[in-house]
Amino acid sequence: MQLIWTLSLFFNLLRKVSLLMKRNILIKYQICILIFFIMIINLNAEETQPSEQLDPIQVLTGIKNELERVLKENIITFWYPQTIDKENGGYNLNHDIKGKWLGPSDKYIVTQARMVWFFSHLARSKYGTKEHLESAKHGYEFLRDKMWDKQYGGFYWAVDWTGSKATVPQKHLYGQSFGLYALSEYAMASGDIEALYLAKKLFSVIEFIAHDSIYGGYKEYFLRDWSLPKQDDTGPMGNSINIKLMNTHLHLLEAMTTYYQATKDPVARERLIELIFIQSNSVVRKTIGACTDKYQLDWKPIHSPEFDRVSYGHDLENVWLLISACEAVGINNRLLFDLYRTLFDYSLKYGYDSTYGGFYESGPFSGKADKRSKVWWVQAECLVSALDMYCLTGDIVYFDCFNRTLNWIMKRQIDWINGDWYSEISESGEPSGEKAGAWKSAYHNGRAIMKCIEFMEELISGKIR
Predict the structure, then answer these.
(1) For residues 126 and 190, is the Cβ–Cβ distance under 8 A?
(2) Rounded distance, CA 303 to CA 294, Å?
(3) Residue 315 needs a FRET pair 20 to 30 A away by CA distance; which of 298, 347, 361, 385 works?
(4) Which of 101, 131, 107 is CA-nearest to residue 119?
(5) Which residues lie across from 219 on neighbouring strands?
(6) pLDDT tens digits along 369-403
C-alpha cells in the first residue's frame, strides 16, 4: 500500500510541479525527482503520514526553515555577543565543550580574521543587523591596530590577549589568506575605503614577496621581516620553506575570489585563475582521483605513508570553492564537471557514512577511512559542496548526501543546549573538543548554513544555474 500511495503521490506532484515550473524544464525535473526521493527515504520515518496535500515548494521551504533555525538559534546566539572582547578588542575565543570561557588566551590571525569574515558576511545577509556590522568593525579594528605589522607589513600569526605584543610574529600565507578574506568581505559589507586600502596593501605584500613566479602558487612561510627562515624551521603550520600545501592554496583561492569581487583588480584575476589551475590540477593525484596536501616547490607530490592520504573535508571544500572561483572570473564550470564528480565521488565512496550520514576525517589511498571521527568543519563543507553539486548537475546522489548529512548534524553534531556545534564526534558517538579556540570559530558552519539557505532559495524560486 505504501508503494501504491507513493507512486500516486509522485504523479500528483509531477502535475503540480509542471504548473509551478513551466518556464524551466531542468528545475521541474530536479524538484520532481528531489521530492520523490525525499518521500522514499522518509517512508519508514515515525512521523510520516500519507497526505495528498504535500507540496514540493513546501518541502524545500521546510528544509530552508530548519537551516534558518540552526543559524539564528544555534550559531549566531553562541558567537554574539559573548565572544566580543570589549576590553581589549577582537574576540575572546577560548571556550570549552560546554561553551564556557576559560579565560585570557592568545589571539590568532586565523580565527580572529574568520570572525571578522563571519560578522561581515552575516551583516550583508538578510539575517544581519547593525550590531553584527559593528561586531565586524570591532574585529577589523583589532586586525588593523594590533595584528598588522606596521614595520614590515602583513599580519602576525598570534598576539597576546591584549594585543600589546606579538607572541608568534612569523608570517605564514595561511594566516595572510584569512586576513585578505576578512578585509575584503568587511570592505564590501561596510563600504569602508580604509579597509579596502588595507586589503590592497596586503595583496601587494603577498604578490611581491610570496608569489612564486617560477612554479606558480605561493611560497608560504617567512620570518617577521619576510626573510626566509632556516631549512629546519617548520613554523606554525608545520611546513618548511620548501613545502607548499594544498590547504594553504585552498584558502588563498577563497580569499582571492573575495578580494577580486571587492576590487576587480586585473592582477588578482590572473592570480585567481592560476589558483584555479593549482586546485583543479596541480594538487590532484590523477591516478587516485583525490587531492593530497604536501608538495615540493615545483608541485611534485611528497610521498610517504603520512602524506599519501586523503582529507575528505578539504576535497569537498575544494569542489565548491573552485565552482565559486570559476563563477567569479567567468569560467564555465562545465569544463570541470568531471573533476568535481571525481573528487566528490571519491570521498563519497571511501569517507562517507552511508548509514547515519556525514563524513569521516581522512583515510589512505583507495581505502576506507581510518580516522573515523566526524569533525564539525568537514560536515559543514559537505553541506555546501553536496548542495552546490546538486544545483549544478541535478544528480539526486548529491541531494541524498546533503540531506543525510544535515540529519546527522541536526541530531548529533549540534549542541542544542550550550550552543554551536561539537568540534568532534567519535565513532562511538562521544563528543569532544573546544567550542572556540585557535582553530575553531563561526566560519565553517556559519558560512555553510548561510550558503545552503541561498541554494534553497534558488531551488524554491527556480533561479539556479
Answers:
(1) no
(2) 9
(3) 298
(4) 131
(5) none
(6) 999 999 999 999 999 999 999 999 999 999 999 99
- Give ranges for CATH 1.50.10.10 in the chain: 55-461
| Nearest alpha-carbon partner for 462 in 10, 13, 30, 9 | 30
CATH number of 55-461: 1.50.10.10
If we measure between CA atoms, which residue out of 123, 124, 90 comes closest to residue 105? 90
- Name the phi and psi angles at 218, rounded to 5: -135, 140
pLDDT (tens digit per residue) in 86-102: 999 999 999 999 999 99
Take residue 353 and report the three cell numbers written for it: 557514512
Taking CA atoms, 262 is separated from 174, 197, 357, in Å, by 20, 11, 36
Q: Kind and range of the H or E element at 263?
A: helix 246-263
- Please choose, from the candidates 160, 153, 293, the residue with its C-alpha nearest in 3D space to the C-alpha of residue 223: 153
Whole-model pTM? 0.91
Cα distance between residue 410 and residue 416, in whole Å: 9
Q: What angle do CA 12, 16, 21 make, to 5 degrees?
A: 145
Which pLDDT belongs to residue 22? 39
Strand partners, 285: 290
Is 268 in contact with 260 (CB distance < 8 Å)?
Answer: yes
Q: How far apart are CA 277 and CA 293, in angstroms?
A: 16
Which residues fall within 8 angstroms of residue 462, CB to CB, at 6 or more apart? 21, 23, 24, 27
Average the pLDDT over 3-7 and give the result: 39
pLDDT at 69: 98
Task: Please report which residue ranges of 143-192 form alpha helices under DSSP H.
Answer: 173-190
